[in-house]
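Field notebook, page 207. I keep forgetting to write these up properly, so this time I am using the form the group agreed on. The chain and the ligand, copper (II) ion, are recorded exactly as supplied. Prediction of the bound pose follows.
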Amino acid sequence: MTGDSTGERREGSVGRRAFVRRAGGAAGAAGATAVGLGAGEDASAQAQRYEFGGHTLAWRGRSPEGIADTENPTIELDAGTEYEFWFENVDGAPHNIAVQDADGNTLEESETVSEEGATASITFTATPEMTQYICIVHPTTMVADLEVSGTVEDGAADGEDAGGPSVESLALVGALVMAFVSPVLFALFLFSRRGEDGEGEGDLTTR
Ligand SMILES: [Cu+2]
């Protein structure tokens, strides 16, 4: 008789240890999820890409969807944010892509490509003095406006506040809170059940 009850108690303590281990695992998994989210945010915070078809008579927007099939689309940029402007040579005439300021000074410039199907791109951080993107070979037809909002300092700060890190840290804090709170809630749930129902304990320990 006494032997039996000791056995039950041991079983109960094993069950509790298994529960602690499981709770620890849950916290670990939540932590790993938070780290994974952080890495994902960093990757998506890379250069925003705009794609164009290079025709002698105009830039033709391709992507994102908002500029698709639009000739010489105005592009709105945020100062301090990194962008990639990419184009494919559509007609086999020589083209390149450059970013200029209001005085026509070239701030960024790709190589010139002359073969149909050839591509070139520039990657740059937007600054307020940028006013147009242009093909240097066809400056009267392949030219369109850039509208840059914000200053470089504000833009960079905005980017960090509104973009990756804040979302990242929110996700991290949320995950950590969940990691700590959920085992406690689970434990409270278990103990409340144990208090209510003696047979419930048996079910839990054999699980
Ligand atoms: Cu051109």
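OBSERVATIONS:
- The radius of gyration is 30 Å.
- The helical segments are 2-44, 152-162, 164-196, 198-206.
FOLLOW-UP: compare against the apo run.
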